[in-house]
Design goal:
single chain; 467 residues; alpha/beta; Rossmann fold; 3 domains; four-stranded antiparallel β-sheet; 18 helices; 42% helix
């Protein structure tokens, strides 16, 4: 947990400075440890060019009174614009992780040309504003040291490359494994999965297989052939630049093996049990709700490809965070947000097992709920999946929903609906309390219900959570 007021619980590992959040503002300190590199980077103008290009977050010096309030010992205190949402690599789709990897490499290539290096290659230094990745760690920039190797090589492989290759080679998503190993997918573990055909690739051999072999040799005490010996060797700047560009070409060409497969919910927005009139009424109800609440941040739970997220933006939402478990739907949502430049970030989650608090002291990476509450929540065609597919009692579902947002509109689907009938087809109906009356009773215990609109076998319920 933070030991100083406002200290971000994830900001404690770097002696160069820490991040503080005070009164809704984001500050970063710069200590004596980092001052020489910081001053060099600022004088090089590399950082300013990257900020102007939208690749790196802005960092503006504060006045002396603010600096003293944040940290009297800091050499500098900078203020960053506050992000609408902090997300993690294990919540990203393949395309998001790929976009983040390409951004990291683009920044490193451009910085190197100006005599600047990134000190690490962690994916956690990238965030998303809408569908656009942005680099957020000012203090990762330092002076390039003549002849140095790419010190972030292994970290880049484990946090970017290997999770992407998991999908490209095997058609397996990275999310669960990455969430279980927060520093990425270990190189040695991934190499054990590779078949002979994969190892024939020169890129795989030189960037993953041989370094993993060197590591094993080093652990046995044969340091002469360990990767530390490679890093101690002089590495010409041109060679480093060429290496980074080759990595970029490799990443750019990767595609998930499952990309052409149609997922179950990818086209759900256009294949529902609603009539045309029902769909029109549903759109109108959501537009009214968003227009009334005007949420700065709205969470769309079960966002699918983002149809209703976009509708919310059109009717007054400032930024929408969409959550879904279907990778096909999420990829479509990310593509929609990128193509239309929407203030819409789509993230992976399992509603019955969302991201928890984890990392050091279970506070370094914040859980889904801890990053809320949102100003408003959409929960469309979600409750029946939780109550019937996951056996969750309705009071537990409503407790969870009302805790995620200050206001919401939730869709309750009765047992007569074809979608619920589909869920019940392969199992015994053990849900005698699954009905509209029971749901409204459970919801009313935690929220003030303001409207219930019947649309055939579905009902749209508008509410405001109780304090």
């Amino acid at each position: 947990m933070p030991t100083e007021p406002g200290l971000d619980p994830a900001s404690f590992r770097d002696p160069s400075g820490q991040v503080h959040q005070i009164d809704g503002r984001i500050f970063r300190t710069v200590t004596d440890h980092a001052i020489d590199d910081f001053d060099f980077v600022q004088a090089s103008e590399v950082y300013a060019r990257l900020v102007e290009a939208g690749k790196v977050i802005a960092a503006n010096p504060v006045d002396d009174a603010t600096r003293q309030r944040i940290s009297a010992d800091a050499r500098h205190v900078l203020e960053h614009p506050k992000l609408p949402m902090v997300s993690y690599p294990y919540e990203w789709t393949f395309s998001q992780l790929k976009a983040a990897a390409l951004l990291h490499l683009d920044i490193q290539i451009e910085a190197l040309a100006g005599g600047v290096m990134l000190s690490d290659a962690t994916a956690y230094n990238v965030q998303f504003i809408g569908a656009a990745p942005i680099f957020i760690d000012t203090l990762s920039f330092r002076r390039y040291r003549d002849g140095e190797y790419w010190t972030g090589h292994q970290q880049f492989c484990e946090q970017f490359l290997i999770p992407l290759l998991l999908a490209a080679f095997f058609g397996t998503t990275h999310n669960a494994w990455y969430r279980g190993t927060l520093e990425g997918i270990p190189r040695a573990d991934f190499v054990r999965l590779l078949g002979f055909r994969h190892k024939l690739s020169w890129r795989v051999l030189t960037q993953l297989v041989l370094p993993s072999s060197f590591d094993r040799s080093a652990q046995k005490g044969n340091i002469a052939v360990g990767s530390s010996a490679l890093q101690a060797a002089k590495f010409p700047k041109q060679t480093l630049d060429r290496m980074l560009r080759r990595f970029r070409d490799w990443i750019e060409g990767l595609r998930p093996k499952y990309a052409k497969q149609q997922t179950i919910w990818q086209n759900y927005a256009t294949h529902t049990s609603y009539s045309d009139a029902g769909t029109t009424a549903k759109h109108a109800a959501i537009a009214r709700f968003v227009g009334d609440v005007k949420p700065a941040i709205l969470w769309d739970l079960g966002c699918n490809s983002g149809d209703y997220s976009e509708l919310a933006l059109e009717n007054g939402a400032g930024h929408v965070v969409g959550w879904d478990f279907d990778m096909g739907a999420l990829e479509a949502a990310f593509a929609r947000a990128r193509e239309k430049e929407l203030a819409f970030t789509a993230l992976y989650f399992d509603a019955a097992n969302p991201s928890p608090d984890q990392g050091w002291a279970q506070s370094e990476r914040r859980g889904m709920a801890e990053r809320g509450p949102a100003d408003a929540v959409l929960a469309l065609a979600l409750v029946h999946h939780l109550a019937i597919a996951k056996n969750l009692p309705l009071p537990r579902v409503t407790d969870w929903l009302t805790g995620l947002g200050r206001a919401g509109i939730v869709e309750f689907v009765t047992k007569e609906d074809p979608m619920v009938q589909e869920l019940l087809k392969m199992r015994e109906d053990i849900f005698p309390n699954y009905n509209l009356e029971a749901f409204l009773t459970a919801l009313s215990a935690k929220a003030e219900v303001s409207d219930v609109e019947a649309l055939g076998t579905r009902h749209l319920i508008t509410y405001r959570s109780k304090p």
